[in-house]
Write a structure and sequence with these properties.
Layout lengths: L16 H19 L17 H19 L5 H33 L7 H8 L21 H18 L3 H18 L5 H6 L4 H16 L8 H13 L5 H25 L6 H8 L1 H20 L5 H43 L6
Helix pairs in contact: 1-2, 1-10, 1-11, 1-12, 1-13, 2-5, 2-8, 2-10, 3-5, 3-12, 3-13, 5-6, 6-8, 8-10, 9-10, 12-13
């Protein structure tokens, strides 16, 4: 209840354009990360790996927790599940099959065409498993899809939380219990290693940000955005001691999302069309860019360039082309597919006339 000396904040609803901008920036961080990888035949002057990919996906996890609590907490559980499936699964399956089509000829030529069939099925159904090409990593066939194993698991937890009538409390409780189990028990199974991973803290952080932001004016803390960005950059180029890097990634991811919410409060009329386009296409960019880079680097490696010029040209072209192809996939495939499936499901779930 508002008191005389506590002004009532306006209802915070509508499209969160700054969060959409951040989705795009997080996707581009992952693209930059892969574009800066050391590759045979391409000059790379970087003496150390620059890890912008991990903090990019950590930002995605915080955003997911925030959006689920802010926009989806009142959806009926079945509607919530249906919408998440429509949003995530079709494009992921399409991109997974596209990448499988690229690697399948190698297995066929080696006389073992069914070698990855089990891995393909587990990948399609978001079952965490050890990657055939790198057995120490819990990755699906399409490597960027590893984050979706966490996202889909979180969506399942949140659907259960919705049924309780208190989604925030229930989701935080369930996620916390899983985290504690991960701290207590030494799991070796990839499923339990995923479902009890510290990444779950980021979903809790996102939910908490949604609860606080709804009741608080964040505009005075817009400074936290550049501060978080500087922390991510410092950790990404490995300036701090090794044991600090992962905690800094986690803290800076939460800072950046909080800073973006502050900008939403402070500059509600701000408009950045290019960021909006990239934000809308962020999922397509994220899933498709590693597929795009497979044939692209074969072409770029053949360019008559050397040294720094080769490095700069290859980096700019790989980022630009991967982004443009991702935007094209969004406009030509992802958006029409989501809209079409949405209409089909809405029609099938609506009451029959005369019923």
């Amino acid at each position: 209840m508002a008191t005389l000396d506590t002004p009532q904040l306006p209802e915070k609803s509508g499209r969160l354009i700054f969060v959409q901008y951040l989705r795009g920036c997080a996707a581009m961080m992952v693209v930059f990360h892969h574009a800066l990888h050391h590759r045979p035949g391409i000059y790379n002057p970087l003496q150390r790996d620059i890890d912008l990919g991990r903090p990019g996906v950590l930002i995605f996890f915080v955003i997911s927790g925030f959006i689920m609590m802010h926009a989806c907490r009142n959806e009926p559980p079945l509607t919530f599940i249906q919408r998440r499936i429509i949003r995530v699964v079709p494009l992921y399956w399409l991109m997974t099959f596209a990448f499988f089509a690229i690697i399948f000829p190698n297995d066929f030529a080696a006389g073992n065409p069914t070698r990855r069939l089990d891995e393909l099925i587990q990948s399609l159904f978001f079952i965490p498993h050890w990657h055939s090409g790198k057995p120490t990593e819990i990755w699906p066939i399409l490597v960027p899809g590893w984050t979706l194993s966490y996202e889909m698991f979180f969506f399942g937890i949140f659907a259960i939380a919705i049924t309780s009538g208190r989604p925030a409390h229930s989701a935080i409780f369930l996620l916390s219990m899983l985290l504690i189990a991960g701290w207590i028990f030494d799991y070796e199974n990839p499923i339990w290693l995923t479902w009890t991973n510290n990444f779950l803290m980021l979903f809790i952080a996102g939910i908490t940000l949604a609860l606080v932001w709804k009741k608080t004016d964040f505009s005075a803390i817009a400074w936290i955005l550049p501060a978080g960005a500087l922390l991510i950059l410092a950790a990404g180029i490995k300036l701090p001691p090794e044991e600090w890097i992962v905690p800094l990634y986690f803290v800076s991811a939460v800072m950046i999302v909080a800073g973006v919410l502050a900008c939403q409060d402070r500059f509600p009329a701000f408009n950045a069309p290019i960021l909006a386009i990239i934000g809308n296409a962020s999922y397509s960019i994220y899933l498709s860019h590693t597929i795009t880079m497979v044939p692209l680097y074969k072409v770029l490696r053949a360019l008559p360039l050397h040294g720094w010029l080769q490095f700069i040209v290859v980096f700019v072209l790989s980022v630009t082309i991967s982004t443009l192809i991702g935007i094209a996939i969004y406009k030509l495939i992802e958006r029409p597919m989501i809209q079409g499936l949405g209409r089909v499901f809405d029609k099938s779930s609506s009451p029959k006339q005369g019923a």
